[in-house]
Amino acid sequence: xxxxxxxxxxxxxxxxxxxxxxxxxxxxxxxxxxxxxxxxxxxxxxxxxxxxxxxxxxxxxxxxxxxxxxxxxxxxxxxxxxxxxxxxxxxxxxxxxxxxxxxxxxxxxxxxxxxxxxxxxxxxxxxxxxxxxxxxxxxxxxxxxxxxxxxxxxxxxxxxxxxxxxxxxxxxxxxxxxxxxxxxxxxxxxxxxxxxxxxxxxxxxxxxxxxxxxxxxxxxxxxxxxx
Length: 227
Prior knowledge:
By secondary structure, the chain is mainly alpha-helical. About 75% of the residues lie in helices and about 0% in strands. The chain contains 8 helices and no strands. The protein has helices at about 10-15, 20-35, 45-65, 65-80, 105-120, 125-145, 150-195, 195-220. The longest helix has about 45 residues, at about 150-195.
C-alpha cells in the first residue's frame, strides 16, 4: 500500500500513536457519524466529502496492523530526514542546523487534545458551541500574550495551552450553566410565589432538572464513543 508519509493519520482520527485497534475503530465510527456527507450543512457538502476521504484513508492505514507498522516506520523516517537548508537562510555562527521541527511533536500533541474537545463540543447545541468557542478564543489570545516576554518560543506553546485551557473552561461553563440556570430560575419563581419555602422547593426542582439536562448533554457530547 502506498501512502503519503506526511499524512498524520493519528491526528485525522484524533487518537494517540499508542492507541489500541478498538480505540481507533471507535474514533473512526464517531468521525463517520459526525462528518458523513449526508449530515453536511448547506454549503459544506464538499468540505465534508474531503474530510471523509481523509478519515477513510487514515482508518485504512491504521486498521491493518501490517500497514500501520509500515506507516509508523515511514512516518518516523520522514520526520527524521529533512532537506538541506538553503544557503540563503542565515543562522548564527556556531549554531548547528537541526533537521527536526522543534514544535512538531508539541503541536501534534496539543492539536490532538484540542481535537477531542472540539469533537465533544460539536455535538452540543449551538449556544454551547458558541460558549466554548468564545472561551477558546480568549484563551488563545491570553496564552499568546502571556508568552510574549519569553519570545516566540514562549508564544507558540502559550497560545496552544491557552486554546486548550480555554476550550476546557468553556465546557465547564456549559455544564455549570445547565446546572445553575434552572435552579436560579425555579428558585426565583418559587421565592416570588411562596417565599423562603418556595425558594428551596423551586431551587431543588430546578437543580434536579439541571442534573438531567447535564447528563443528557454529556451523553450527546460523547455519543458514538461506545457502539
